[in-house]
Amino acid sequence: MTQPIVIKGMAWDHPRGYEPLRATSAAFSKMHPEVDLQWDIRSLKEFGDMPIEDLIETYDLITIDHPYMGQAFANKLLLPLEKSISEKNLGTLKEQSVGPSFESYMYKGHQFALPVDAAALVAAFRNDLLLQLNLKLPKTRTGLFDFYKKIPNTHKVAWPLCATDLWCTFLTLCAQDAGRDFIKDRAIEKRLGTQILDELKQHLEHLHQESIHWNPIQILDRMGADDEIIYAPFLFGYTNYSRSGYTKNSVDFGNSPINPKTDVSTILGGVGLAISTHCKHQDLAVAYINYVASAEIQEGIYTENGGQPGNLKAWQSKANNTLCNNFFSNTLTTMEKAYVRPQHRGWNAFQEQGADLLHKGLLNNTPSDEIIKNLNQLYQSIS
């Protein structure tokens, strides 16, 4: 009996991360019986921080965050997909991308991943409780402070502000106030950064006390389990929580508060599916990721199995919006206007260390201008 061709992949540890990949792998293997697709998982933090170099020799398929593109290019870690997928097919996937998702995996003319999962910071809320309390959600950041005053003591607002998510929120607010190009010459303008940190300190006075330690999943789990947290204005959305029966209470999602003076919503997240340069069966690996990224699979199998697709047709699907309580239609504006992080080599090291620096600064109530000074010094020190 012929031994199967094993293709190993690394997913991330949430049903949204691994369930749709397992489902699409099973469907792909029915068409290609000679292929055995196997998935391991890593934590959400490892997904954002673990260097690709630690994975490419063991895994053929890697779920990846878009800021890794510069590192991947410099160290020749990932397969440039334009060499294996037709220009026409890539053009179609680009047209069908949710917001800037497709382009976020492009670097110096090379496409290093296909967007199979799309996300940005959005607002999560318990609509049933807001209706009971006759509360309307704020559309702008300044309106948040008025909203806090209207909430009874029995309820709370929470933001995920553990180091990784604090970093994403900080960059979001900078981009909302100063536009997408607020980072210049590897520095964040001191006055801008100081103002944003001062604002975050003001918000912390009104938030659930555990916000500074929580990630999005922890907050969404709490919103789904009990009635204490009624609103989270900035967190990465998960369609799972808007699906009937996933948690005790259904969580609704919408666009985050903005600064109406700029055309920027929030920071782009999501997941790309990439192929290691060490992959021995690149043709089959390419066939699989092309299959997963296609509109038909994204709209069907991928979403049906807990996925949060990267294809616009899946976001516009009436069936998918019914399945997910209009998660897609209610957050699409945020996706279309999302801010894309830098991709240059060294950004990931800066991102990981910078997030910890900001977090420790807030925990210790370090003066905001001192935090920004230290942050910029760190940025300049990383090549």
TrEMBL record:
Source organism superkingdom: Bacteria
Keyword Cell membrane assigned: yes
Keywords: Cell membrane, Lipoprotein, Membrane, Palmitate, Signal
InterPro entries attached to this UniProt entry: Bact_solute-bd_prot1, SBP
Subcellular location: Periplasm
Family: Belongs to the bacterial solute-binding protein 1 family.
Protein name: Extracellular solute-binding protein
